[in-house]
Amino acid sequence: MSPPDIIALRQYLGAGPKDRTISDARHSVSLTDMIQHSCLAGGPSELSGRSVLLATSGQLLSALAMIELDGIARRMLLCPPDLDWDCLQVLLERADIDTIVTDRPLHRRSAGKYVVIGVDLPERRAMGSEVDRTTEWLMLTSGTSGLPKIVRHTLDGLAGAIIAEGPARHRNATWATFYDIRRYGGLQIFLRAVIGGGSMVLSEPGEAIAAHVARLRAGGVTHISGTPSHWRKLLMSGASANFSPDYVRLSGEIADQAVLDGLARAFPRASIGHAYASTEAGVGFSVDDGREGFPAHLIGQNHAGVEMKVVDGSLRIRSRRTARAYVGADAPPLADTEGFVDTGDMVELRGERYHFVGRRGGIINIGGLKVHPEEVEAVINRHASVQMSRARSRRSPITGAIVVADVILTNGTNAERHERIRMEILGQCKDCLAAWKVPAVIRFVERLDVTAAGKLARTDA
Amino acid sequence: MSVKSKIFSAMKQIAEEQKVTLPPLEDDLSLNETGFDSLAFAILVARLEDELGIDPFTVAEDAAFPSTLGEFVRAYENVPA
Predict the structure, then answer these.
(1) Is CATH 3.40.50.720 the right assignment for the domain spanning B3-77?
(2) Fewest CB within a 10 Å sphere: which of A77, A128, A192, B70?
(3) What are phi and psi of A262, to 5 degrees?
(4) Which tens digits make up the pLDDT trace of A420-449?
(5) A326-355 pLDDT tens trace
(6) How many helices (H) and strands (E) does chain A have?
(7) How many residue pairs from chains A and B have C-beta atoms closer than 8 A?
(8) Is A130 found in the same domain as A260?
(9) Cβ-defined contact of B42 to A426 (cutoff 8 Å)
(10) Across the interface, do A436 and B39 touch by the CB < 8 Å criterion?
(11) Into how many domains does chain A fold?
(12) Given A298, A324, A350, which residue is the final one in a domain?
């Protein structure tokens, strides 16, 4: 018997046009056919009530398995591609996993006590199992140091922002994201495609940006999301010239004015929105006016079920979209006693708008004076010849630390102009920032590392 | 260019950026009288490390910070390259 209030993911497959697909670089699978087919060896019924680790080599099989397992499995832990087995074993214990769904050959020794179930393209017909439970969706936080935390969501919470906007808003869209869908930002886009009746084109690790964009165009992608770092990389590559999406979305990092303006120039037809979301706090809000930051009136009121406040400079969010809890014995509470999640993202009110200034843990301390690297980058990025920048801490025998900046210039910038540009950037920083926030040294570099989660790598943060 | 003239040239550059008027640079000039604050010295030491490849104040744990310009320059000259 299926309780009437549970809607599982695959119940959305019948919506929208009949030719809905999800594809990666090698395969395209009909989402409509998934109603009657199974990608799981033995069909989904064997997974009823199981606690499943979803560990596939690519995103496509994870996507299909998520559709099949939601409403069937007790819980499923989405495993991003870059996790090593030692780390994973600890997490499996913590998440009380008993079954591994994978397309990889697992040694008996590694598999140990787990039931291993194969997953492949959905070529076998299968009757769908009855939806009989609310499956827990377990995701890993994208923090840079130590073991990731496991957070527990439900589909209801994960899809909260999609349902609130009205899934029909983007009907028949073909979605894409630079993210991996096994991370929060990417999962949001996958869910938008499935729930909103659309199609999806997945990213491929290591794929050259020009090849990726060619695939986005061939797949008819209309809606696409990524971090500001992803977008800067695309703008830098020049590959955006022949691509013309209707909707461009940024999330996961601070969207500064320079990247918003750059996208508006590159995609004059597109509506451009930046969203605030995190694995723990869920989707907070999205802003579509093309300006950095967000309107101050979003704080202190209940907007579509999301309440936000600022305490000690950091943004706190309470809503049904936040994760339910951290998973594991001795896991710390995810929210305070009133149910607010502290995002650790620091904001500052300037006029009628709040601006993100950086992460609480990322502050650089210069002889007792503090600066967020992100606020320095936002100023540097305003220079017309700058494509991307990273401010970071460098130790100093005088002040403990100083701010230095690594800067990527736009393609074709003449090396003879470097000194002038350096002085212009310094001048710009001096005009907008307190003296200690102005970078002591500016280096021009060819590239800056971006993490697997699509964020600018901050080794000192 | 000698180490000393590289240091002086970096100081002049920073003075210009920081809108500081430097007095004539002489060996017995006290560092206090240069008009540089600790931030300006921090910038100077960082840039000299990039240019000369050394930071004498971090290398030697017991290094006392110099009080005159001459001592400051010697700290750089005395570090074995």
Answers:
(1) no
(2) B70
(3) -60, -40
(4) 999 999 999 999 999 999 999 999 999 998
(5) 999 888 999 999 999 999 999 999 999 999
(6) 11, 27
(7) 42
(8) yes
(9) no
(10) yes
(11) 2
(12) A350
